[in-house]
Amino acid sequence: MYGGALELRETLEYDFNTEQEFSYADLTMSDIISHLARFVSGLWQIHIFCEGNTRTTAVFFIKYLRSMGFDVTNDVFAKNAWYFRNSLVRANYRDVKNGIYEDMTFLETFLRNLLMGEQNELKNRYMHIRWEETTHSESKQHIKRHIEQHVPNENSILNVLNTKGISSRMRSNIIKLHEAFGMKKIFGRSDVIEVLGITERPASTLLGKMYSLGLTEKITGAGKGRYRFVF
Q1: CATH of the domain at 206
Q2: What is the DSSP letter of 145?
Q3: Is the pTM value of this prediction over 0.85?
Q4: Are 105 and 179 in a shared domain?
C-alpha cells in the first residue's frame, strides 16, 4: 500500500517535519539506526515516484546521512540493491490474517553494515516467508502456516555468548530470554521476571549486563527500560 496520489506532498512534508524535530542527542548507535530505519522505510512507502522510487530514496538517504556526518558511499547500496529494496518491503508489509507483521530487523541489519562497518551477511533468502502444509495432529485438519526461514550466521546468539566469557548460569538465562522474545518482541524487567522467575534486582542486573555486552538495544517510545535483542 503506497501513499495516495493527492496526498504525496502533504505526506512527505509530514515525514520531513517529524524528522526535523527529532533529537538524536544521547541516543546509542543502535537507537539511531532503529530510528533511521523507520524514517527511510516511511519515505519509501509513500512511493513518490512511479519508477525509480527505491533508487531515488537511496540517493536521498545517502545525502541525508552525509549531512549528519556519516562517511557514506554508494558501495553498500550498489552491492546489495536487491536486499535493500526487499528489506524496505519487509519493513512495511503485513498480513495479519496469516500472522505476518512489519519487520525492521532486515533494514536495521543493512544499516549496521553501512554505518557501523559490521559484516552481517545480507542474503535475500533470509527474508523469505514460505508456506508449509501441515496436518493438525489431533483434528487431522489440513492447514497451512507460514514459517520464517532462519539461516544462522556468525552473529547468532550462541556464537556471541561463547565469545563473551560469561557465567554458565547467566548464559542459560540469556538463551531462555532469547527463545522467549526473539528479535521482534520488546521486553522489560517485568517480562524477564515472568520468564525466569527471578526478583526485580537480578532482573535489572541481567538487563544491564545484556545491554553492556551489546546483545540488546534500548527502545525509545515504548516506555522506560524497554529492550530488544539485536540478533
Answers
A1: 1.10.10.10
A2: E
A3: no
A4: no
In a domain, 191, yes or no: yes
For helices 189-196 and 200-212, the axis angle rounded to 10 degrees is 110
Main-chain dihedrals φ then ψ at residue 149, nearest 5 degrees: -80, 125
Whether 187 and 88 share a structural domain: no
* 186 neighbors 227 (Cβ within 8 angstroms): yes
Residue 85 lies in a domain: yes
Number of domains in the chain: 2
pLDDT in tens, 70-86: 999 999 999 999 999 99
Residue 195 has which C-alpha cell?
A: 520468564
With CA atoms as reference, report the closest residue to 205 among 194, 219, 220, 189.
189
Q: What is the pLDDT of residues 161-176, one digit of tens each?
A: 766 667 888 888 998 9
Three-state secondary structure call for residue 4: coil
pLDDT digits 0-9 by tens, 134-163: 555 544 444 445 555 444 444 467 666 766
Domain that holds residue 93: 1-125
